[in-house]
Q: What sequence folds into this?
DNA sequence: CCTACCGATCGGTAGG
DNA sequence: CCTACCGATCGGTAGG
């Protein structure tokens, strides 16, 4: 348990970097932007990170880790396949659109191309593990007769619909994360009145 | 009708810029990258465009225009709502994943945030018009009893599934654009065996 | 469209 | 973590 008062400058930098990478993109964000955001001089972030790329790495891995844990914690619920699926939709969307890890997840989705090959491979491994959870959820839905297609393409199309919400969702908009999750479930699974 | 032999350097620049913006991102692409790609010196692109931003504008508007035309040309077909819908899916995916305008459409989707407010407003107007076509297609599907939800969120989720294909589709992969379009139609509309 | 160049800014570092 | 700085690179321009 960390005390809230104890300053953790490294974490501050990661948070600020996440926000800026999300808002302006990695390439358009300067070290000076990040230093300003945490009240440091331009050379000081390098006391905590060797390179700008290392900051991106920290942000992306944090995003991958958060969403993985959030979805895993509801994926193996012993309820019905449909309930588990809807809980996974909610968890994914909350990571992506909700307060805390929003910038981390968004940076993961949009700035990973700036990762060097070694780190990218690291991320891809985690992503494959993550997507396997979804594949299993789709398989269970199909076995229960709720969907007809549990192929790889179906999974990618579904995750696309989820991930693209970053582009249009507004926290002050008219629909909640909960509603979006339910509408997507309805779209994929089928109609109820 | 333009002769193929007649060199059009401006169009060459737009094409090269589109490819580079798509591959590396707008901010990470330099004028020198673009000049190299078309065999010019670093100052020469500015004979054709006033700023780097104007090149982005040209690429994005070309992308918006192509996809708009491609989908519009099949949207008002007088066939069944389902056939029209599937044709729209194919047209959108072909623009996004097919050879010609791929880089333009991808740049439109991912680099629009670097547009200045005036140009962005221009793009948003065109985008709204584009999305209205999809809204109408969904309305027709609902009227025909093929889907239950033709709301704005449903439309955005659907377009998300389409747009995200840029992230995972590989031209040399195992599925064709045609197949992806059909699987998405099946996912949304309903099962056939 | 090239040559030659400019001022600004960038990621990163040495030394404290 | 700051001060002071460096070499490299960037978008853009003047003059031809």
A:
């Amino acid at each position: 348990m960390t005390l809230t008062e104890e300053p953790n400058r490294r974490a501050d930098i990661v948070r600020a970097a996440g926000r800026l990478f999300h808002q302006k993109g990695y390439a358009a964000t300067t070290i000076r932007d990040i230093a300003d955001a945490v009240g440091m001089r331009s050379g000081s972030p390098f006391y905590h990170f060797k390179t700008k790329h290392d900051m991106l790495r920290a942000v992306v891995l944090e995003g991958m880790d958060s969403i993985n844990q959030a979805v895993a914690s509801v994926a193996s619920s012993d309820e019905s396949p449909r309930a588990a699926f809807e809980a996974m939709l909610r968890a994914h969307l909350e990571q992506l659109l909700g307060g805390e890890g929003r910038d981390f997840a968004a940076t993961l989705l949009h700035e990973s191309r700036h990762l060097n090959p070694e780190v990218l491979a690291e991320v891809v491994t985690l992503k494959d593990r993550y997507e396997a959870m979804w594949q299993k959820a789709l398989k269970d839905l199909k076995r229960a007769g709720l969907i007809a297609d549990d192929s790889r393409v179906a999974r990618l199309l579904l995750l696309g619909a989820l991930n693209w919400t970053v582009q249009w969702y507004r926290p002050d908009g008219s629909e909640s994360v909960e509603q979006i999750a339910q509408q997507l479930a309805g779209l994929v699974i089928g109609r109820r009145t």
Observations:
- Residues 142 and 148 of chain B are 6 Å apart (CA to CA).
- Chain B touches chain A at residues 24-25, 27-28, 110, 113-114, 147-149, 151, 153-154, 156-165, 167-168, 175, 179-180, 183-184, 186-188, 190-193 (CB under 8 Å).
- Residues 30-32, 42-43, 46, 50-52 of chain B lie near DNA strand D (CB under 10 Å from a C1').
- Chain B has a mean pLDDT of 94.
